[in-house]
Design a protein that fits this description.
- By secondary structure, this protein is mostly helical.
- The protein is built from four helices and two strands, in the order αααββα.
- The longest helix has 35 residues, at 83-117.
């Protein structure tokens, strides 16, 4: 199970890095921003932030068990024998959560760009969405 957790963290990080590179290249192209493009960036930023957050959370569990063990299943901590691995794993987790924070900031920027440039949906009032305006025929 431990191997799967680290494999997931590595794969998720690689996919998110690829998305970040592709996103930066697409953003650098001089094309006008459209609503569909803004929504795509907003949704993908959200998805990849949560993918990295889940990968970091699962890996945090593994590192915690490596340090502390689990007395209920008589699993002792392994960091006494694998100290170098535990230090590298902890550093990897710190970097992962720093990247999650960067993705959170990126998500805030993309949501600001989306919601500041485009109007609210049809039928929106200060009290919410007017459903009679939505279902008019």
């Amino acid at each position: 199970m431990t191997r799967f957790n680290w494999w997931y963290l590595v794969q998720a990080s690689g996919v998110c890095a690829g998305y970040s590179l592709l996103s930066a290249l697409v953003s650098a192209l001089p094309r006008p921003s459209t609503m569909s493009r803004a929504w795509t960036f907003f949704l993908l930023d959200q998805v990849f932030m949560y993918v990295l957050l889940v990968a970091g959370a699962v890996s945090t569990e593994v590192v915690y068990l490596a340090y502390k063990g689990d007395a209920a299943i008589t699993w002792s901590g392994a960091c006494k024998q694998l100290g170098k691995f535990c230090h590298k794993a902890t550093a990897s987790l710190a970097i992962t959560f720093a990247v999650v924070i960067c993705y959170a900031v990126l998500s805030l920027v993309s949501s600001y760009r989306l919601f500041s440039r485009y109007d609210a949906p049809i039928g929106y009032t200060n009290k919410g969405i007017d459903m009679s305006a939505v279902f008019r025929t």
